[in-house]
Amino acid sequence: MITQSAIAPLQNVSLVSAAISRAMSRPHGLPGIMAFYGPSGYGKSVAATYAYNKYQAYYIQCKSVWTKKYFLVNLLKEMGVQPAKSIPEMTDQAAQEIELSQRPLIIDEADFLVEKNMIEVVRDIYEMTGAAIILIGEEQLPAKLKKYERFHNRVLEWIQAQPVSVSEVQLLARIYAPEVTLHDNLIAQLMEVSRNVTRRVCVNLNLINETAKKEGWQEVDSSLWGKRELYTGQGTIRKGVSL
Which terminus of the chain has a smaller tally of CB atoms within 10 A, N or C? Predict the structure, then answer.
């Protein structure tokens, strides 16, 4: 995973961190599940990495091919526990480990658990522990969870990931374009092309930095950048036609 020191303090990082803090310190009787959701590329997994380090949380990133058993096996491996043979036994093992450690649980790519009808396993673990659990998923995660009413009712907060801001682009520029000064008009152009998606912004900042090194630029604005392309996240199959 990415180390905590390499993560810029963006607003989505703060949102996830604060959510876990609230879930861990919530008053007795309140639910302890948080849902953090938003479009791909908004830096949700990076934010989860920061929280994983800060709170010594258990972290698991789900895969589309996982079964219920494979989810539990990988969760127990993250906990350093030798998995039992059956799904009920493994569920009990995971709950016991969380109960003893009092550590929060971060489940990234949680959409896969919902789509494969596996999310009730998480509810089982929650019911046995009352632990702070944060689900991280795509834009439709809240809608997907509505069909699981018993789970949906145990969500304390629904937190929407935020698009990258101008100040955050300037902060990211120190990491991905440290050798060149970007003027405001190029930052505005970059944000428009990137559609305020953090991942695309980072790709473009790196592209500008590499171009500046090649061209010998110390600073660059939109006029100097000219008609050079910026990364949009779309492929082109022929001129004028985007995928």
Answer: C
Distances (CA, A) of 83 to 5, 34, 78, 80: 32, 26, 11, 9
Confidence check: pLDDT of 3 > 60:
no
Whole-Å CA distances, 189 to 75, 115, 146: 42, 37, 38
Question: 10 Å Cβ neighbour count for 57?
Answer: 22
* Residues 93-110: tens digit of each pLDDT: 999 999 999 999 999 999
Q: Residue 234 and residue 241: Cα distance in Å, rounded?
A: 10
DSSP H/E element including 61: strand 58-61
Nearest to 55 by CA among 4, 108, 104: 104
**Residue 238's Cα: distance from chain center in Å?**
33
Give pLDDT, residue 232: 85
Global pTM reads 0.85
Please state, in angstroms and rounded to a whole number, the distance separating the CA atoms of residues 213 and 184. 20
| Beta carbons of 137 and 110 less than 8 angstroms apart | yes
Please report how the helices 184-194 and 166-176 are oriented relative to each other, as an axis angle in degrees rounded to 10.
Answer: 100
- pLDDT tens for 23-49 read 999 998 899 999 999 998 888 988 888
